[in-house]
Design goal:
There is one protein chain. The chain is of the alpha+beta class. The chain is built from six helices and 19 strands. It has an eight-stranded mixed β-sheet with strand order 1-2-3-8-7-6-5-4, with helices on one face. Strands 9-10-17-13-12 form a five-stranded mixed barrel. A three-stranded antiparallel β-sheet has the order 14-16-15.
Length: 331
């Protein structure tokens, strides 16, 4: 089902900054912008460029401004920008922002160094990934489209071209399901389900310049002043959760055109474990076993293939045409 993105919802009340920790004060739902995505009702004190309004006023995640420590005492795990201690996760990106995720991913305390909106958009995928993992929902580094047989997910490392491929497929009529992260929950008796995200794609300037159609006209905002990366609206969006049909793991090879190869279940599980967003935090969050069960469900009920992309410059439209012959028709 295709549907144009709705206008985002905002409250009429002026939102003021507060440095009082969220858990120490009563929540005023009228002070939050309300959104819906990845199966979650999200309330945010910071206005976000999402176009999907939540119909519920009781948020699963509350994002608020507040005081955030630079480090966690008694941290059990420290990896890059992240620290974990007793189920609490701290993300500290120097010069950009800090956020503290607690209460099982229900509370997010945020402190920006500069533009609030740009700072939170820059780390938003990481915030959502941690909140999803804490709910035993698999968050993959991936983008997804909707077909008549279900969601087709394109997973891969950063910069491999996931968003560009999906944008080119959108030009061919395939509705977007999610971009940046794809949330998948296992079903014990049938195919896992993919939660719809938001009707935007993150694209670099070079991708926007090589894509055909309306992408340069649909730019919403620049992610960071120092980065040539933009949030762009999509023409078609599948605004409902959808069963998983297939996963393509993207790699680059010295080829003239794309090539696909099915992955054996054991190999598929290994690749998908590595492609979880912020996978290095799962053990520290106590979610290693839940992550494994989600991944094995994908390998059991869905097709998982390796999709090799040409290293040489190949126009996105050409890639999309070659990929589309392997896909079911658009939803």
């Amino acid at each position: 089902m295709r549907e144009q993105a709705d206008h985002f919802y905002r409250t009429e009340r002026e939102i003021s900054r507060s440095d009082t920790p969220y858990k120490n004060r009563k929540v005023d739902l009228n002070q939050l912008y309300h959104y819906r995505g990845y199966g979650l009702n999200i309330g945010s004190q910071i206005e976000l460029p999402w176009h999907v309004e939540s119909k519920h006023n009781d948020p699963d995640i509350s994002i608020r401004n507040g005081k955030v420590p630079e480090a966690l005492e008694s941290a059990t795990e420290t990896r890059g920008y992240f620290q974990v201690a007793n189920g609490i996760c701290l993300l500290n990106v120097q010069g950009v922002s800090r956020c503290l995720i607690s209460e099982g991913g229900r509370e997010v305390l945020f402190a920006a160094e500069g533009n609030n909106r740009q700072s939170i958009i820059y780390i938003l995928d990481s915030i959502l990934a941690v909140c999803l993992h804490l709910r035993d929902v698999l968050a993959l580094n991936a983008s997804a489209i909707a077909t008549r047989e279900g969601a087709v997910v394109f997973a891969g490392s950063a910069g491999i071209g996931k968003s560009t491929v999906v944008a080119a497929l959108c030009d061919m009529g395939y509705p977007l399901v999610a971009d940046g992260i794809v949330a998948v929950r296992k079903n014990d008796v049938s195919r896992p389900r993919v939660f719809c995200g938001f009707p935007q794609i993150r694209l670099w300037t070079r991708s926007i310049n090589t894509l055909q159609g309306i992408w340069s006209k649909n730019i919403q905002m620049q992610i960071r002043p120092e980065l040539e990366s933009f949030l762009v609206s999509v023409p078609y969006f599948h605004g409902k959760d959808i069963p998983l049909h297939a996963v393509y793991v993207l790699v680059s090879k010295n080829l003239e055109k794309i090539d696909t190869k099915p992955l054996a279940p054991v190999r598929a599980v290994a690749r998908l474990i590595d492609l979880a967003c912020r996978a290095h935090l799962l053990q520290g969050l106590g979610k290693g076993s839940g992550h494994f069960h989600n991944v094995t469900a994908i390998a059991r009920y869905s097709t998982v293939e390796c999709l090799s992309l040409p290293v040489i410059n190949c126009p996105p439209a050409t890639l999309a045409e070659q990929i589309s012959v392997r896909l079911p028709p658009p939803a």
